[in-house]
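Figure 2 data, in text form.
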Amino acid sequence: ASALPATGHAGDAVAASTLTTTLPYPRVKLVHLTDLKADRELRLSYPDNASPISLLKFGKPVLTGMGPDQDIVAFSRYCTHMGGTLQFKADTGAFHCPLHYAMFDAQKGGLTVIGQATDNLPQVELEIDAKGDIYAVGIKGLIYGRQANVLA
């Protein structure tokens, strides 16, 4: 044990988070609450123009939903398996990948339903201000093909 360098006491350790980015996420206004219609997908991009997302309003409360009815969510449109651009289908409430047929349940936090994807969809963190404006403020999960979600 004396051959090992002194590392201090366990009580001296400061917990480092592995869930942070090296650059801050931008706060981007997406739409106003009144611009959303139930079961209609709104295609946007976040945190930059090279990252397509879907903003959805379900008209009923969903897991991780935001807004007065807890029914608004947004997700990356890149499949976590091989980066295929996902298509949202309102009849299933899920994103479908055209490459290998993976499915992700948008009503259950982007949960992988079937297919070769091993990670759930990255979910856009949303904020809604007192005027009803919806902002994207971060992403939970890593966008496919990136080492960090926010590019320098």
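Caption note: The chain has no helices and ten strands.
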